[in-house]
Write a structure and sequence with these properties.
Order of helices and strands: HHHHH
Number of domains: 1
Largest sheet: none
Number of helices: 5
Distance between the termini: 85 Å
CATH architecture: Orthogonal Bundle
Length: 119
Amino acid sequence: MSRVKRSVNARKKRRSALERAKGYRGDRKSSYKRAKESLLKAESYAYRDRRNRKRDFRRLWITRINAAARQEGMTYSQFMHGMKLAEIELDRKVLADIAVRDPETFRRFAERAREAAAA
């Protein structure tokens, strides 16, 4: 059976890991073993936080909509219920943007939601 020489691939793997760990502190950037450990942790955090980012933004949008709705004398849930009854289909991202950038338009949405909820 022929012999397998692995040094090229092994070196490539180590170099790749050390390049990805560039910018880390201490031995984490220069020692392959420490860099590998740090990368495993960093990649698990990155995977987790790509999902958490979606939750965080939804929480932010809801907070902004709630604040704007309360300025119009409604709670968040009353506002969203009225929007659904008024058949205004805007997602929370757009509503939060309107609440921050264009309070007059948000005020009109709140009026429509209030009328729909009252009817």
